[in-house]
Design a protein that fits this description.
Elements lengths: L9 H19 L15 E8 L4 H10 L2 E7 L3 H10 L4 E2 L3 H5 L6 E5 L2 H13 L3 E5 L6 H14 L3 E4 L1 H4 L2 H12 L5 E9 L14 H4 L2 H4 L1 H12 L4 E9 L12 E8 L3 E7 L13 E6 L2 E6 L12 E6 L3 E4 L8 H11 L7 H16 L2 E3 L4
Parallel strand pairs: 1-2, 1-4, 2-3, 4-5, 5-6, 7-10, 8-15
Antiparallel strand pairs: 7-11, 8-9, 9-10, 11-12, 12-13, 13-14
Helix pairs in contact: 1-3, 2-12, 5-6, 11-13
Length: 378
């Protein structure tokens, strides 16, 4: 088990805890974390094991919006647990993960633990008869993927990954509706870009060590492979090429700050680029973009910022044979939480098929494993 080297430094630890707490507080104080009808009995009860990434906030929020009741969580780190407990007082902090796994009232487990620990937690959850939702990357090696697939088949439980760049963003949900309506014709290609800001003082030790986070394509790129499969409708795909490198942050020899991949499927093609080069001058952590090219038009998403000047995120631009249009997305429903809870209760696959979940991860892992290492000589 990795040590956290006093979490970071004392200053870094304070900053990291503050960042997580601020993000959780912002969500917890909003309708984002409330059931649509709080007078109804919860549709299911769920627990959390591992809160090492702040993505856990949107995961909890999605399930609560779907009708879930958050009852218990386990976290090894006292600093993270203190902030989490303050923002989610309805959930009891327990002393071990077994208290959650052996609780018959809990039917679902969520995890945003250190990335390499998420698949083993999911395996234990499924073996205890519980469904499972992981932060991405939910699986960091092909060996883990094989074991997860086997246990999922044997138990019949759901092992899902919250690919939040599609499932928790209104513009991406709206883009899916537009693609299905046929306004850009048949999708030919997706071009996904996932730039991120480093913000080194807020990063724990494991963030810089590939054996814990799986590599840049495995980590950030899994979002993009999910979107490629979804928008092209591909159920089969293969990697044509991929690259990884550590260009700027060479003081961390096990870190990767650049990666890209080209993929083709039975429904279309895709190009993916991810990096840790977001400049400090940008007003958000990354200018995440997605372009969906169709035979009769295209859609471009600026998910987190519009550098042309529009405020906020979830910007969608539609161009086809009849118009060029900016599409409003602020009132779009995020359906994942409701659909996912429905799937747990009804044993269906409306939120995401198990095949899609595993294939998106498999593509990211194969692109990571077989990538050419970029080494510039000038």
């Amino acid at each position: 088990m990795i040590t956290r080297r006093k979490f970071l430094t004392s200053t870094g630890a304070t900053m990291a805890s503050a960042l997580v707490s601020n993000r959780l507080s912002a969500y917890a104080s909003a309708p984002y974390f409330r059931r649509a009808d709080s007078t109804q009995e919860p549709r299911l009860r769920f627990g959390v094991i591992g809160i090492n990434h702040a993505h856990i906030n949107s995961m909890v929020g999605a399930v609560i919006r779907g009708g879930g009741e958050f009852t218990a969580f386990y976290a090894k780190e006292d600093d993270l647990a203190a902030a989490f407990a303050k923002d989610f007082p309805q959930a009891k902090r327990v002393r071990s993960e077994d208290e959650i796994l052996e609780d018959k009232r809990i039917s679902l487990v969520l995890s945003a633990a250190i990335a390499c620990e998420r698949a083993p937690i999911g395996i234990r959850a499924m073996k205890h008869g519980k469904d499972y939702l992981a932060d991405k990357p939910g699986i960091t090696t092909l060996e883990q993927l094989d074991e997860v697939r086997q246990v999922q088949r044997e138990t019949g439980r759901i092992f899902s990954i919250l690919y939040s760049e599609r499932l928790e963003h209104k513009a991406t949900v709206r883009a899916g509706e537009l693609v299905r309506s046929g306004v850009i014709g048949k999708v030919v290609q997706t071009l996904g870009m996932g730039p991120h800001r480093m913000n080194i003082p807020s990063r724990p030790d494991w963030f810089f060590d590939k054996k814990y986070y799986g590599g840049i394509i495995c980590d950030i790129g899994s979002h993009q492979f999910d979107q490629f499969l979804y928008f092209t409708g591909s159920t089969e795909a293969r990697i044509l090429s991929s690259q990884i490198g550590n260009v700027r942050y060479t003081q961390y020899p096990e870190f990767e700050d650049f990666g890209d991949a080209t993929v083709t499927g039975n429904g279309g093609s895709g190009y993916i680029r991810v990096d840790w080069f977001t400049p400090d001058g940008l007003d958000t952590w990354g200018d995440g973009r997605l372009t969906i090219l169709g035979t009769e038009g295209y859609i471009e998403l600026r998910k987190y910022t519009d550098i042309a000047g529009r405020k906020g995120g979830d910007h969608l631009f539609l161009v086809n044979d009849s118009k060029t249009e900016y599409v409003e997305c602020q009132h779009v429903e995020l359906p994942f939480g409701r659909q996912f809870v429905d799937d747990i209760l009804n044993r269906t696959e409306t939120a995401m098929t198990q095949h899609h979940c595993f294939l998106a991860t498999e593509l990211a892992l194969l692109a990571q494993k077989n990538a050419t290492v970029v080494k510039f000589t000038k």
